[in-house]
Amino acid sequence: MKLKHIIKAFVYLGAIIEEFLLLSEDEQIVQFPELSNAIRESRKQNPWFVNPFVINALKGIRYWLDEETLANWITDNGVSEDAKTKKIGLIMAGNIPLVGFHDFLSVLLTGNKAYVKMSSKDTTLLPVLSTFLVKNCPNLTKQIHFVAELPKNMDAIIATGSNNTMRYFSYQYDKIPHILRGSRSSIAVLTGEESSSQIDMLTQDICLYFGMGCRSVTKIYIPDEKLIPRIQNSLSKFTWMTEHRDWSDSLRFQKAVLLTRGQSFYDCGPVVMLQESRLISPMAVIHYEKYNSLEKVKNTLKALEPMVQCVVGDPNKCEDWIPFGKSQYPEVNDFADRVNTLSFINSL
């Protein structure tokens, strides 16, 4: 199938998502009943998939689905129209809504067949979106396969999950070309020069998807604690998260543990901030660490690179840093774990 037809199918999907997002919830139910129902069912299946975060996931996907963006993306990454069609298995994670969409997009835009094993925590959203692709381009039915188990004759595997799951997949698929992604998290670096808008954007990087994504900021480097009240004030717009029963239970538990241990912390509404050198923080806790030298922080980040998905900060301080508020809205060319999925597929 011509890649231009596949691109047009994804552009059509982008237009559908854009139209859906412009409607009120009642209008969405009338005009897009299948997608509206999929969102409701996803919440029943996974209580962390609250409506605002599913909508955010759709917004992020919509941003990629532009004809010029997709055409340039595959051209810049050397995708060939003449390559032999391959069967690529996708094992999806279920921590945030539609987290595997980028892999799905990568496989189809390279003209290959996607065999998709959905997470039991997220089975409804991607299959419904794929129906819009097929509606625009019926031949895609030959390339999209949702399966309970991956067939044994896959040419490659792309899997995302926990570190324990990755150890199992590494053993199971050791003889098949693969990309295996385990657990990672993200870091923010503040200098004290941030505007109020930048601090507001940082709180999105922390709170979107209840902090469950690999691009969620779980630790912040700060020059001193004078910045914390500013972060605390900005986090107030996410206080609604405490109405979520499971999040509220976790928040109360973490406060109780810290109080029992006699550890001081900052109560920031939907989260607590704890001075801690470790990168990974428990649910509802954000670690912070004070620093004296920005250069030393940069050296520390280099050592942490295998565990870090992205670093949020002022790109003028370091060109590799992502602007505040952008960690959960990656560009289409921002590949997870810095492994170029298109290059991997091209190499098969």
Please characterize this protein's 3D structure.
By secondary structure, the protein is of the alpha/beta class. The chain has 2 domains: 3-183, 3-Layer(aba) Sandwich (Aldehyde Dehydrogenase, Chain A, domain 1), CATH 3.40.605; 185-312, Aldehyde Dehydrogenase, Chain A, domain 2. It is built from 13 helices and 11 strands. The strands form 2 sheets. A 6-stranded mixed β-sheet has the order 8-9-10-7-6-11, with helices on both faces. Helix 6 links the parallel strand 1 (87-91) and strand 2 (113-117).
Task: Give the structure's gist in a few sentences.
The protein is an alpha/beta fold and 348 residues long. The chain contains 13 helices and eleven strands.
Strand order of the largest sheet: 8-9-10-7-6-11
Mean of all residue-level pLDDT scores:
95
- How many domain modules? 2
Q: In whole angstroms, how far apart are the ends?
A: 19 Å
Could you give a short account of the major beta sheet? 6 strands, mixed
Rg, Cα atoms, Å: 21 Å
- Compressed to H and E, one letter per element, the order equals HHHHHEHEHEEHEEHEHHEEEHEH
CATH topology of the largest domain: the name is: Aldehyde Dehydrogenase, Chain A, domain 1
CATH class of the largest domain: Alpha Beta
Number of strands: 11
Can you give the helix content as a percent range? 40-55%
The name of the CATH architecture of the largest domain is: 3-Layer(aba) Sandwich
Separate helix tally: 13
* Shape call: globular
Low-confidence stretches: none
Classify the secondary structure makeup into a structural class.
alpha/beta
- The H-level CATH homologous superfamily of the largest domain, spelled out, is Aldehyde Dehydrogenase, Chain A, domain 1
